[in-house]
From TrEMBL:
Belongs to the glycosyl hydrolase 7 (cellulase C) family. This is Glucanase. PANTHER family: 1,4-BETA-D-GLUCAN CELLOBIOHYDROLASE B, GLYCOSIDE HYDROLASE FAMILY 7 PROTEIN. Gene3D superfamilies: Glycoside hydrolase, family 7, domain. InterPro entries: ConA-like_dom_sf, Glyco_hydro_7, Glyco_hydro_7_sf. Pfam families: Glyco_hydro_7. Its EC number is 3.2.1.-. GO terms for molecular function: cellulose 1,4-beta-cellobiosidase activity. Residues 1-18 form the signal peptide. It catalyses: Hydrolysis of (1->4)-beta-D-glucosidic linkages in cellulose and cellotetraose, releasing cellobiose from the non-reducing ends of the chains.
Amino acid sequence: MFSKTAFVSSVLAAVASGQQAGTLTTETHPSLPAQSCTAAGSCSTVATKVTMDANWRWLHTTSGYTNCYTGNEWNTTICPDGATCAANCALDGADYAATYGVTASGNALTLKFVTDGSYSKNIGSRMYLLASDTKYQMFKLVNQEFSFDVDVSKLPCGLNGALYLIEMDEDGGMAKYPTNKAGAKYGTGYCDTQCPHDIKFIDGEANVEGWAPSTNDANAGSGTYGSCCNEMDIWEANSISAAYTPHVCSVDGQTRCSGTDCGDGDERHDGICDKDGCDFNSYRMGDKTFYGPGGTVDTASKFTVVTQFIGSPLNEIKRFYVQGGKVIANSAVSITGVDAVNSITDKYCNQQKTAFGDTNSFEKLGGLAAMGASLSRGMVLALSVWDDHAVNMLWLDSSYPTDKDASTPGVARGTCATTSGVPSDIEASEGDSQVTYSNIKWGALNSTFAAS
């Protein structure tokens, strides 16, 4: 629901994204094999890897070690404008484990929340699945399903282990923007429906115009431009709450926005993307015991998440879980004014928006048909862990907005206190938090999971 980039930061000698490819640190992508399935029990291994998002990487001059971006400000001598900055600055390789707390073992990827390196302190991360060293794995999931295992037992209130699809360019934007020499290899080209302004390079140019350092994040800022695209949040969760949410835009693919099109502030519902989306959070939809420690889906141990994209054009997004050898259907709605369903359809979305008094930008911008069209064109898989410098993740796991009574329909989203999730608090007290994603599969409906 809120930006996964604007509120995730790293404290490094220099942390930014760039468009030239640096040579000071060799970029070696961790292996994360996945599986493509045609029928139950008939899956083949795909030799996929992962890469770190460009916003976390060291950005320095092409001819040396001078930082192009430090803390939350640009070096305006090296980067007086976007085009000059793109020519002057290089994006370098990543030391995944030591610097970023990212480790891969077999088919499992673990993302640590806080990593104290020899010279730096890193907060959160965002990774992408690669088909090769220079291209993202593209997912076209209409009338297909996607599944993965997840361990959220070490994700407390205020954190979000998010696995989601976004309509990025397969090559990270290299073909579209010749000034982008780094591409997917270095994690370039990010976009989502929040149209984030903290992306340091958009459309092959540095986002230096109008750059303003954040007032509550020493490592983040925002520029004039945002980077927008369709987004399918397959999984946003911690050990307390979980949601899956389609978000749609009126544009195809990664698109740079400015002004009203970005949907900022009071213009949230006037932009080209649906920032709210149509979410299914079991707690918010009336079942307060379905998900969590000791719940029907017990977050104290690992489980499988299955998401099915049914129909062409897309007309339903269905959720299952598998834990302890048992297939668990998603919880059913128990909210006045909404049918007792357990999946996302356009009817569900319309009823939910009415019941909660929310603006229905999802319908206005095309609903599930628009989401299906994006899935047909192809989307990139992001895997992340982050904290929220805007509203402390209360929209996921607490009561939000905080100026409404928790008994108001749609406000209560989880059991976390409204005082929880403050980044400065959890970065100090919950640094050992982590999420592990594993056993990624996709393919024909009912092909990726089984119960004993």
